[in-house]
Specification:
The protein is mainly β. The protein contains 4 helices and 20 strands. The longest helix has 9 residues. The protein binds magnesium ion.
């Protein structure tokens, strides 16, 4: 099932994708009789997180690209919900940076509150998966010595276009295209820390609320974006998250 959220008069409405249409979901996530054309709705980020927890250095090749050692446990950081950017939305190029980077990532969407969850139970807390772009001001990441400013500007978390609830995460292909040219390409088989491990690990640090997301790290091939660029995160089985830089 592919779950979307779309805007109607300033309100976020849930829907389920059926081919090229969206069935509107009512109270209690019950299907209504209303069906809209997918091309007619204005998509929002597909969930409403209280926080986005991000794993750094979780693909072997990306750790090598940065000349970093493979970490013994996940390095995690937060992006605030004010970072969210909708599918099709504009990633704002802040005046404070001169080196704005994309990072294609698979995002885990939490469906059931998770606190101190063992790895074997992690799947019970996952609603599904979506595409994310962990937009980063690379120069500020280096300059500040920690990552809050570099990762947290408004629009630095494009998310969507949908939540796929039945994704096979064993070997899902993930790509990033910049103006049509492939810049990152890998599969989730290259993850250092697995999805159940990440959910368990984070839940032992902080309570995860339904709608929260865990970004699972980016593959090798990170690089800069410029104003006017089209950036696409493409994950097999989920779809394509498209944004422009402005
Ligand atoms: Mg990242």
């Amino acid at each position: 099932m592919k779950i979307v959220r779309f805007d109607r008069d300033g309100q976020g409405i849930w829907g389920v994708v059926e081919d090229s249409t969206v069935r509107v979901m009512g109270a209690g996530f019950k299907p209504s009789n209303e069906v809209l054309s997918l091309s007619d709705v204005s998509l929002l980020p597909p969930c409403v997180p209280t926080k986005a927890v991000c794993a750094g250095l979780n693909y072997r090749e990306h750790a090598l690209e940065l000349s970093m050692d493979i970490p013994e446990e996940p390095i995690i950081f937060l992006k605030p919900p004010s970072c969210l950017c909708e599918p099709g939305g504009v990633i704002r190029y802040p005046s404070m940076t001169r080196n704005l980077h994309y990072e294609a990532e698979l995002a885990i969407v939490i469906g059931v509150l998770a606190r101190d969850v063992p790895e074997s139970e992690a799947h019970k807390h996952i609603l599904g998966y979506t595409c994310a772009n962990d937009v980063t001001a690379r120069d500020l990441q280096t300059k500040d010595g920690q990552w809050t400013r570099a990762k947290s500007f408004d629009t630095f978390l494009p998310l969507g276009p949908c939540i796929e609830t039945e994704l096979d995460t064993a070997n899902a292909a993930i790509s990033l295209r910049l103006n049509g040219e492939t810049k990152q390409h890998s599969t989730t088989a290259d993850l250092i820390f697995s999805i159940p491990y990440l959910v368990s690990f984070v839940s032992r640090v902080m309570t995860l609320i339904p709608g929260d997301v865990i970004l699972t790290g980016t593959p090798s091939g990170i690089g800069p974006m410029e104003v006017g660029d089209l950036v696409e995160v493409d994950i097999d089985g989920i779809g394509i998250l498209k944004n422009t830089v402005g």
